[in-house]
Amino acid sequence: MSFLEIRDLYKTIGGVNILKGIDIELDKGGFLVLVGPSGCGKSTLLNTVAGLTDVTRGEVVIDGEVVNDLHPSKRDIAMVFQSYALYPNMTVEGNIAFALEMRGVPKADRDEAVKAAAKTLQIEHLLKRRPSQLSGGQRQRVAMGRALVRKPRVFLFDEPLSNLDAKLRVEMRAEIKRLHRDTGATIVYVTHDQIEAMTMATKIAVMKEGVVQQVGTPDEIYRMPSNLFVADFMGSPAMNLLEGRIAGGDGTARIQLTRNGDTPVELAVPPTVRETALRDGQPVILGIRPEAITDTGLTDPRAKAVSIVHAPVDLVEPTGSDTFVVTQLAGKEVTARVRSDVAAKAGETFEFAFNLDRAVVFDPATTERLR
Amino acid sequence: MTLTVDAVEPVRRKAGVLDRVRDILPKIVLAPSFALILFFVYGFILWTLYLSFTNSRILPIYEIVGFDAYINLWSQPNWYMALKNLAIFGTLYIGLCIAIGLLLAILLDQKIRGEGVLRPIFLYPMALSFVVTGTAWKWFLNPGLGLERTMQQWGFENFQFDWLTSTDMAIYCVVIAGVWQASGFVMAMFLAGLRGIDGEIIKAAQIDGASSFSIYRRIVIPLLRPAFLSAVIVLAHMAIKSYDLVIALTGGGPGNATELPSTFMYSYTFTRSQMAVGSASAIMMLMGITAIIVPYLYSELREPAR
Amino acid sequence: MSTATASVSPGSARAARFVIYGLLLLFAFIYLLPFFVMLVTSLKPLAEIRSGNMLALPQSPSLDAWAKAWGTACIGVDCSGIKGYFWNSIRMVVPAVAISTILGALNGYVLTKWRFPGHKLVFGMMLFACFIPFQAVLIPMARVLGIIGLANTTSGLILVHVVYGLGFTTLFFRNYYEAFPDELIKAAQIDGAGFFRIFWRILLPSSGPIIVVTVIYQFTNIWNDFLFGVSFASGGGAPMTVALNNLVSSSTGVKEYNVDMAAAMFAALPTLIVYVVAGRYFVRGLMAGAVKG
Question: Residue C161: which CATH number?
Answer without folding.
Answer: 1.10.3720.10
